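question for whoever is on the cluster today: can someone run the full assembly for these? three chains, 274 residues total. i dont have access anymore since they changed the login thing
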Amino acid sequence: MTKKNRPLDAVLTRMQKNLAERERNAVIQLPLWPEPKRGAPNSFIRSALFAAIQSKDRQYIKEAVLASQDGITVKFTGEQLNQTDLDVWETIVHMAREQPLGTFCSFTAHGLLKAMGMGTGNSQHKQLHSTLLRLTACAVEVTHEGKTYFGPLIKSGAKDELTRHYGVELNKGIIRLFGENQWTALDWQQRQELRSQPLAQALHAFYSSHREPFAVKLETLQAYTGSRNKQVASFKRQVRTALSQLVNVGFLSAFKFEGDLVQVERAPPLVKRA
DNA sequence: TTCCAACTGACGAGTATGGA
DNA sequence: TCCATACTCGTCAGTTGGAA
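^ ran it for u. tokens below:
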């Protein structure tokens, strides 16, 4: 290196430092979806990350590659997540979307349960706390369209045992999952109407992320929803019931089975009159 | 494919508590 | 006293697996 280049190197180094500093301090914010919607990355709802299982059927998973749609890779370590966990995560993300990522989002347990349309009894409070711990303790590695996020789904949290106020912090890196055309605004009212029906919720989320759903094999749906039902006939029965529920809530207009293929037709969105 | 029984979790009504 | 929040407990609905 010549003496002549040294000042230029110093300037470049300073510029790189400034750029890195600016990136660290940049205000990163989630997309602003409307109030009746809940935003979720497609990588979450097109994979078995949030399985259609009951709480009692959770398993501990270590560095497992979960079933996912082509173009998405999901690795998971921790206690298996289900649709209830997705409800909680979506609600927290929904509340946090109006403030920069990395800042604490505070709420009361009661308020969060109410916001999710759940009961507010002791069992629900315990369930909520377990969910928050699960979302904090897990480790996911999601790759979608060349962008990878790895880490927990909630960075950290705090709770005031007297007032039951929570404060949770989301990772800034989570924004990588909300790239353009990589997330879906789920109809929250429909999802609430499907509460306690994990398979219907999982299919609602999956098909919400496809404007014109294509025919999908039963075994593919079985994998994407993380179903524990090993019997094909039994799973088909469950899917039929779940899709009927999606028709009832106005999400689908029709569905049919052609052999082991499932074809659905989305209902046109309701236009609210002023 | 349908039916059934057992199990589990969610829900809701009634009540208690604490702060303004 | 009122209101928001929290707790307890009984009931109900959903899920599952097995049998026919």
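summary bc i know u wont read the tokens: Chain A has one domain: 37-266. Residues 37-266 of chain A form one domain.
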